[in-house]
Write a structure and sequence with these properties.
By secondary structure, this protein is of the alpha/beta class. The protein has 12 helices and 23 strands. The chain is globular and about 60 Å long. The chain binds shikimate-3-phosphate. The site of shikimate-3-phosphate has 10 residues, from helix 5.
Length: 427
């Protein structure tokens, strides 16, 4: 589907509520499915990725029902039952495949995990390696899906991860939950810690300190979970608010877990007008409202090191923001961006250049020289990547001439409500 975006000549105003956090929604379904008891999950994501997780656990025999479009009731005795054909689809979702591998590797049955074309190209050695050290038996197509997992009892490990990846860390911790002995993961920088927080909330014996987390075999007890809005989805609105002249609006009820708020720190470093209001805690996770206002004099900054895992998914839209900041914005240490739903460095540089952004590709990131007037007047390709499609839409709001976005339907992976929410602020 091709979407045409025109320059916005009026400011964005009002108030919106960002839908449910994708990372937390995945975990809520996974962990409640392996917990004992009944629970209600409020504000579950309507994105296709989280529905892949939900359908997968239904086919593993878990009783999951929708009470309304965003509320789930999950009832489990903590024991998964294999489906007749032992094959489970993860769709486009890397989080589903990598975390579920950690759960299935320690079961007393075999499984096959499949993915769509894009997921089948993404690297899985990063989880196969540590799981194999724990005694798992997994075969793959040269480190790619489909993954064939021979379920067996695993043993705990002490693992120094080369990557700051929450998917790798969570996979190992989930395998450790059901293994013999304790399991420790140490990562180079702290990645999002939703797994640690939720496992603790559900009663696991888990201890996290800085970049190190240790889990002992534990039983989980189901508990109701309320999910805050997704800061990654909010990032398109934060950017639009800062770059569309005269804008001033509030984004309500957004997750503000400090391992996810890198974008807010970057906006502050750039001198952007952003404020956090009504701080609160929702099921163990920090949350609040974000007020954002148009800022004429944004300044470039460097984004590197420990910043990266705290804003990895926001880098495409941060590139759009940086195009409107005076000076050179340098993004480095972000080589893993090449392993997302697309090669997000190569594809981003190619498409933003067409629009008129002065952007240069680097092996582990990119450099943007701002501020430049964006000409638009071109067709962009989203490469089946939801975050690229939404970033180009955000850029389109300030392009002199309209832009077309090919593959806009991929926004449904994480954020089906994206355009509807923008139209609320345009009125
Ligand atoms: C996620 C972790 C990140 C992120 C992805 C969601 C998660 O991936 O990019 O969108 O929910 O754990 P990595 O762990 O590969 O960095």
């Amino acid at each position: 589907m091709i979407k045409t975006v025109h320059k916005l000549n009026t400011p964005l105003k009002g108030e919106i509520t960002i839908p449910s956090d994708k990372s937390i929604s995945h975990r809520a379904v996974m962990f409640s499915s392996i917990a004992e008891g009944e629970c209600i999950i409020k504000n579950f994501s309507s994105g296709a990725d989280c529905h892949s997780t939900l359908n997968l656990f239904k086919s593993l025999g878990v009783n999951i029902q929708f009470i309304n479009d965003k509320t789930l009731k999950i009832k489990s005795n903590g024991i998964l039952k294999p489906a007749l054909n032992s094959t489970y689809s993860c769709g486009n979702s890397g989080t589903t495949m990598r975390l579920v591998s950690g759960i299935l590797a320690g079961q007393n049955f075999d499984s096959i995990l499949t993915g769509d074309e894009s997921l089948s190209k993404r690297p899985m050695k990063r989880i196969i390696e540590p799981l194999t050290l724990m005694g798992a038996v997994i075969s793959s197509v040269d480190g790619h899906a489909p993954l064939t997992i021979k379920g067996r009892k695993l043993k705990g490990i002490n693992y120094h991860s080369k990557l700051a990846s929450a998917q790798v860390k969570s996979c190992i911790l989930l395998a450790g939950l059901n293994a013999e002995g304790e399991t420790t993961v140490i990562e180079p920088s702290l990645s999002r810690n939703h797994t640690e927080l939720m496992l603790e909330y559900l009663g696991a014996d888990i201890k996290a300190e800085n970049n190190k987390v240790t889990i002992k075999p534990s039983k989980l007890t189901a508990k109701d979970i309320d999910i805050a809005g997704d800061i990654s989805s909010a990032s398109f609105f934060i950017t639009a608010g800062l770059i569309v002249k005269g804008s001033d609006f509030t984004i309500k009820n957004t997750g503000l877990n400090p391992t996810r708020t890198g974008i807010i720190d970057v906006v502050k470093r750039m001198g952007g007008n952003i404020e956090i209001l009504n701080p609160q805690t929702i099921s163990g996770e920090e949350a609040g409202d974000i007020r954002v206002r148009y800022t004429e004099n944004l300044k470039a900054c460097t984004i590197e090191g420990d910043d990266i895992p705290r804003l990895i998914d926001e880098l495409p839209v941060i590139a759009v923001l940086a195009s409107q900041a005076e000076g050179e914005t340098i993004v480095k240490d972000a080589g893993d961006l090449r392993n997302k739903e697309s090669d997000r460095i190569k594809c981003l540089v190619k498409e933003l250049s067409k629009i008129g952004v002065n952007i240069e590709e680097r092996e582990d990131g990119f450099v943007i020289r701002g501020k430049s007037e964006l000409n638009g007047g071109c067709e962009t390709e989203s490469y089946h990547d939801h975050r690229l499609a939404m970033s180009f839409y955000t850029a389109g709001l300030i392009c002199k001439r309209e832009i077309a976005i090919n593959g806009f339907e991929w926004t449904k992976i994480s954020f089906p409500e994206f355009e509807e929410l923008f139209s609320k602020l345009k009125k």
